[in-house]
Amino acid sequence: MPDYEYDLFVIGAGSGGVRASRIAASHGARVAVAEEFRIGGTCVIRGCVPKKLLVYGSDFAHALDDAAQFGWTLGEMSFDWGTLRDFVARDVDRLEKAYTTTLDNNKVDHFHERAVVTGPNQVRLASGREITAKYILVATGAWPVMPDFAGNEHCITSNEVFDLPILPRRVVIQGAGYIALEFAGIFNALGCQVTVVNRSDQILRGYEQALRDRLLQITMARGIDYRFNSPLERVEKLDDGSFAVTTKGHDAMGADVVLVATGRRPNTIGLGLDSAGIVLGATGEVPVDDYNATSCPSIYAVGDVTDRVQLTPVAIREGHAFADTVFGGTPRTIDYGNIPSAVFSQPPLAGVGMTEEQARGAFLQIKVFTSDFRPMKNMFSAKAERGLYKLVVDAASDKVLGVHMIGPEAPEILQAAAIAVKAGLTKADFDDTMALHPSMAEELVLMR
Ligand code: NDP
After folding, report:
1. Which range marks the domain in which residue 184 is found?
2. How many domains does the chain contain in total?
3. Which of 55, 178, 215, 339 to mutate to test the pocket of ligand 1 (most atoms within 8 A of CB)?
4. Are 175 and 262 in contact (CB under 8 A)?
5. Per-residue model confidence as pLDDT tens digits over 326-340
């Protein structure tokens, strides 16, 4: 047997990589991880966590708007972007330390530099050091896609948006997916003029249509402008530092920040996987089997770099299953069915299971139940915004195939509903459950 320095070398200390490192070490493996940026990865450092804190911070604007109706007299109010930005940055620092401590507590060595694969059992660090390992795990995540158009060097992505020196007055956002709509909500709530431009006439492709329509209606009423079938063509920097932004078929508009959120591609450029005979897929992803194994027996991959489901909890499960499989003697695969997801737009939406459209294509007959209601919290609000919940049910078995909701706290409510869908419960089971009154969630058991 060759003598390797480590049993496992992980490239990338994000959600999947850290979980795999920790669990492999707990199974007795000698583990090292290399990270070229910051320990924690996209979710912790410049994704889910700081984004959610910005959502919380900005959402106060809506509560403050409504407060007077509930009897509050508010003095002069102002918002300071620097305070929110720095608070978020401090929390990211705290979490990075917590992740580093987790690695230390599990005796995982960490190298704060880039590593590339130089063979089936070898990596090279940026410093030039070569390290051998019995297994290599690729967990390098994904990277924002920047489409090709004139002036794209003036645009930022979600990598940079958390560090803006000042709050922009006008923001143009390209894309109408998760990131675009979450930041559209944040900047809109903070009082910026927001324009969302997209190449198609759709937002949130793949989500339940009725929810997408509702989000569009509410966000337009809140002042977000949309330009559909109108991708960015040119971004020109003006003398005052602002930008003239031209989108297809429209005159130029002014912007102080142009945020591009047009998907994320697997982070494999220059990673050296060809040295181990691994052929990348069409979007640069690392092809793997159900056990996260690549075509090279000593190399595995988990998380966004495999381009299966780009969600943190999925990467964590994959990393854990990999470690149990390879080092724990308990081969495990992941069940990718009924993965709940949410868009932290304002209002947020969330869903699990099949949309109405998907179910119509897969089942002979389905039933659809909807509740279109004005949340009690919004009763006194001038905004008159309505929530919308939808259940998609197989008519033959009565099984609930999908739950979709938009409205205050939708993601918090949906997590519990996802258990019911995952467990295969029927509409009758939902109906048998006593309502919890007064709540928005009770709509789930009151749809007839
Ligand atoms: P999405 O895939 O969600 O959306 C991409 C958007 O960009 C779509 O509107 C798409 O248009 C448009 N687009 C794609 N390619 C181009 C192009 N070449 N030129 C112009 N427009 C283009 O990507 P995001 O960047 O928003 O997010 C990446 C991933 O990160 C998500 O898929 C998600 O998995 C994850 N994420 C999850 C979050 C959550 O769970 N809350 C939050 C943030 C990110 P069209 O649809 O019209 O083709």
Report:
1. 152-262
2. 3
3. 178
4. yes
5. 999 999 999 999 999
